[in-house]
């Protein structure tokens, strides 16, 4: 079925064109696979099953689409600068990646970075996560927000907006704070520098949110995005992945004496499942339902995953 026929058959009230996994895979065209199994192993997330076949079926068509977007954006910027009589300025193409805790958005972002960097017209691709823009624990404790870490109010939104504004303004070097999942806090003496990349991927829970009423004319994080992706899955799947990840961390990172969660390292299987489920329901599922999921329809592309993390469906926003 052609794209035109598919659109005619779908609900034209929807802002999206929906593709099955097979239909989406066919859009790869001749895009080559340049990742190896070793490359994939380096970026695969904890408890996330991802094969080279899945890279071919989902990520290569997406990289082809994004390459077309980036190329058009670069040409538009050059044309505008020529019109204004200025030397061409380098403005990064910014991609936002959103989704729940444990849905696999970090793996999605890392693999996307790898495949996009293989295109010759945008070889410099950098990735920043919004975890670094969380308020430090001392601030969250003062505000009574430690149990709401990851909720919109737990982020230094002003600092994140200033970072994105500087990136989009073409500053030669912009620094973002770094978050340590081991100590569960922002690291005050560390930063990651962004040096005018061709593409910047910004990954986080709430990057598609519409802000707050703090200002009469609020600026949204997504205002700086040229394209956005929402990684989706049924809530019961994500809960299962979260518990599985917790059990793996209990055997690995939680054993480190420096870990903020060291107290969970000696839990029995039954205790660990109960603890993870409680944390999920009290904090992460609540944040998903109240804050993250409502932003899904603001994404340019929604990827829906099966229980095995394989892509089941792709929804692409109509132009």
Any overview of this molecule?
By secondary structure, this protein is α/β, with parallel strands linked by helices. It has a single domain (3-317), classed as P-loop containing nucleotide triphosphate hydrolases (Rossmann fold), CATH 3.40.50. Helix content is 39%, strand content 18%. It has 9 helices and 9 strands. It has helices spanning 3-9, 21-25, 37-43, 52-84, 105-116, 137-142, 157-168, 235-251, 269-292; strands spanning 16-20, 93-99, 125-129, 174-180, 185-194, 199-203, 227-232, 301-305, 311-317. A 7-stranded mixed β-sheet has the order 1-9-8-7-2-6-3. Strands 4-5 form a two-stranded antiparallel sheet. A hairpin with a 4-residue loop joins strand 4 and strand 5. Helix 4 (52-84) packs across helix 5 (105-116) and helix 8 packs across helix 9 (269-292). The radius of gyration is 20 Å and the shape is globular. The mean pLDDT is 91.
Give me the number of helical elements: 9
Oligomer: single chain
CATH class: Alpha Beta
Question: How far do the termini sit from each other?
Answer: 20 Å
Instruction: Tell me the name of the CATH homologous superfamily.
Output: P-loop containing nucleotide triphosphate hydrolases
Major beta sheet summary:
7 strands, mixed
What class, by secondary structure content? alpha/beta
Beta-strand proportion? 15-25%
Rg measurement, Å? 20 Å
Shape: globular
SSE topology sketch:
Layout: H1 3-9, E1 16-20, H2 21-25, H3 37-43, H4 52-84, E2 93-99, H5 105-116, E3 125-129, H6 137-142, H7 157-168, E4 174-180, E5 185-194, E6 199-203, E7 227-232, H8 235-251, H9 269-292, E8 301-305, E9 311-317
Parallel strand pairs: 2-6, 2-7, 3-6, 7-8
Antiparallel strand pairs: 1-9, 4-5, 8-9
């Amino acid at each position: 079925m052609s794209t035109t026929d598919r659109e005619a058959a779908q609900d034209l009230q929807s802002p999206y064109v929906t593709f099955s996994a097979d239909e989406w895979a066919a859009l790869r065209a001749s895009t080559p696979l340049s990742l190896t199994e070793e490359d994939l192993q380096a970026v695969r997330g904890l408890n996330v099953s991802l094969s080279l076949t899945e890279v071919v079926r989902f990520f290569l068509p997406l990289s082809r689409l994004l390459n077309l977007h980036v190329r058009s954006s670069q040409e538009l910027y050059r044309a505008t600068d020529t019109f204004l009589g200025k030397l061409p300025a380098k403005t990064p193409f910014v991609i936002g990646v959103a989704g729940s805790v444990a849905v696999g958005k970090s793996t999605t972002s890392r693999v996307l970075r790898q495949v996009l960097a293989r295109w010759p017209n945008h070889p410099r691709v950098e990735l920043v996560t919004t975890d670094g823009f969380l308020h430090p624990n001392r601030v969250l404790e003062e505000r009574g927000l430690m149990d709401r870490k990851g909720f919109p109010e737990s982020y230094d939104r002003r600092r994140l907006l200033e970072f994105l504004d500087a990136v989009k303004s073409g500053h030669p070097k912009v620094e973002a704070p770094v978050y340590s999942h081991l100590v569960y806090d922002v690291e005050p003496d560390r930063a990651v520098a962004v040096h005018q990349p061709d593409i910047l991927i910004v990954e986080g829970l709430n990057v598609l949110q519409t802000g707050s009423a703090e200002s009469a004319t609020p600026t949204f994080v997504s205002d700086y995005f040229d394209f956005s992706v929402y990684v989706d899955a049924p809530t019961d799947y994500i809960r299962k992945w979260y518990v599985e990840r917790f059990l793996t961390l209990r055997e690995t990172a939680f054993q480190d004496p420096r870990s903020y969660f060291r107290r969970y390292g000696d839990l029995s299987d039954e205790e660990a499942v109960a603890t993870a489920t409680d944390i999920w329901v009290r904090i992460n599922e609540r944040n998903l339902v109240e804050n993250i999921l409502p932003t899904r329809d603001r994404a340019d592309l929604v990827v829906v995953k099966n229980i095995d993390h394989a892509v089941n469906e792709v929804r692409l926003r109509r132009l």
